[in-house]
Structures are given as C-alpha cells and as structure tokens.
Amino acid sequence: MDSLVAFRFSTWPRFCYPLLRAVTRLYLSKRRSSIKSLRDFQVLVEPYMERMIEQTTDSFSVSGLEALDLSQPCIFVSNHRDIALDPAFVNWSLHLSGQDTVRIAVGDNLLKQDWVADLIRLNKCFIVHRSAKDRRQKLADAKLLSEYIFHTLKNDAQHIWIAQREGRAKDGVDATNPAIISMLSLNKPKEQPLADYVRSLRIVPVSISYEFDPCDLSKAKELHTTEVEGSYDKADSEDIRSIVDGIVGFKGNVHVAFGKLLDAEFDSAKGVAEQIDSQIKQNYQRFASADAAVELLGEVNIESDGSFTPAEVDEAKLHLSSRLSEESAEIKRKVLSMYAVPITHK
C-alpha cells in the first residue's frame, strides 16, 4: 500500500500519506468486488501501468513483434535488469499488439511476505523453487518446473516469460545461464533430439533496454560489498524495495526488442544459451547514457560513433553526474561501467 500511494501521489507532501493510504485502501476494497478473474485484475492494473510509463519514461518503444507468429504460444527469454518491470514491459508490448499476456516465472525469494505472494499469483505468475538444499529435491523441483512449462505451452496455450539467468545482471553484462536451458529440457523425451525439442518450445530471445536504471546505485553497492567482504547479506525487504524503486524511478527511454524463434541444430544447452545471448546483444538498444558513461569514465581510447548528438550525450552526463554526486569513487566507477557496457562489451 505504501508503494502504491508513493507512486500515485508522488507530488503530494508526505504528511498526507496516512490519509491517502486509508482512502486508497477503501477505493481498492470497492474495486475488488468487481474482480472475478485474472483478466479483471489486469484491467484494474492497466491505467496504473499507463501512468507509470507516462511519468517515469521519456519514451517506450517495441520492435520485432510484427515478424513473429504468435498464433502459437512462445517462451520469451529476456535479459534481466528489473525484477518486476522486465516481464511487465514484455506484457505491455504484447497487450499493445492485441496479444494475451504471459505467465511469469518468479523466484521463491520473493515469497517472504504474504501480500507479495498473493499479488504474484494474481498476475499469472508461477514459482521457481530455488531454496532447496538437497540435490535430489533440487532436481525434482526442476523436473516439475520443466513439465509445468511444457504443459502451459501445449495444453493451456499460454505464453511464458522467464529470465535468462537467476538474478539481475547487476554489472550490465547480459549472459544466459545454460542451466536454464537444461531445466527446460528435462521434460524432453530421451529419444527426441535436443534441436527438435527446442523448436517445439518456440523460444524467442527478448532484449529489454533501459536508458537509466533506477536501481543502479543499489546494484553497484551490492557488487562493491561482495568484492570487499566476499559476500552480501541481502535484507528480507530488499527485493521489494528494488521493485518499488524500479517502478517509481526515472528510466528515460525504454525499448523492448523481440528476436527470432530459435531454429538451429542445437546439440547442447550451451549452444542454445549462446544463440539467445547473440540475439539479445544484437537487438539491445544503445542509448546516450552509454556514451555519457564512457566519457565520464575518461575512456580516451574509445571514440563515439556519432549515434547521438553532443547535446544528447551532455544531457545524459548531467543526469548521471547529478545522481552520482555524493557517491564514492568506487561506486561511481561501478555505476558508470554498468552503463558503458553496450560500448565496452561489443
């Protein structure tokens, strides 16, 4: 409720929040009576999604959907930058083109608060169990997940979204974990070639590009702490905080690029992962923030290719400099290196 009020009434003084929480709770209670299905819930959320895009982005664009045959369900495998917004922007892209939304793979680390678990289930999510310690239990969980995903595609005829890796790419480098492909393949009949099974899953790589990341500072600080202390002890509420920051924070330009269906003679999970990475990297939309970060890092050996005007780069530099003005040199370099990846990791 606090997050919803903070977003919806962001321009109101904070002393009004207790009253606004009460009014919002009453409003939602009345609206709840009209919700009879998942679709009704999504219709309720739709205006908030529109408002979020209008207030926290400079533009939102989509490419590649027109080239896909969506008469059959697909598995959309995307890079992972934001816990909630990555699947939300994929959903919004599909919604704008008149398609049904996806079922979303969500890690069980987000189930620590009951209200979050309830909200996740309301939004066509299914749980990826990661907390099992026993190897046999982990394998059993993975097999059940693989079976469920195949059932969802073939019996329920529903699209699926899943991240290319466990956890967000905090350093800005997108890389598919082959273990994701191995999990998807656990339901494959032994006699069926991997390439044929991959084709049957209709995997589509998706590249989601944010000009600015509202969680850039928290990601950089987590990376720095891990480097200095050897580990990072995440607070129970930290993922929820990241979700809120991602939703309400300024993102600049956002682009969602849908790739092509995977269709090659794959003989290993690693080969599939490499093809996903290739498409995600190729379709990633570079923004002026990358050029700005390179200049702020003082990378004299990297020249701009002229994709952006000096004014556009200067505007991005101003935004980044303002955001990093009170941070240590280590955190500044971490954040800027994250933004510079589209240029430094070609």
TrEMBL record:
InterPro entries: Plipid/glycerol_acylTrfase (IPR002123). Residues 61-145 form the Phospholipid/glycerol acyltransferase domain. Signal peptide: none annotated. It holds the Pfam family Acyltransferase. GO terms for molecular function: acyltransferase activity. GO terms for biological process: D-galacturonate catabolic process; D-glucuronate catabolic process. This is Phospholipid/glycerol acyltransferase domain-containing protein. It comes from Paraglaciecola mesophila KMM 241.
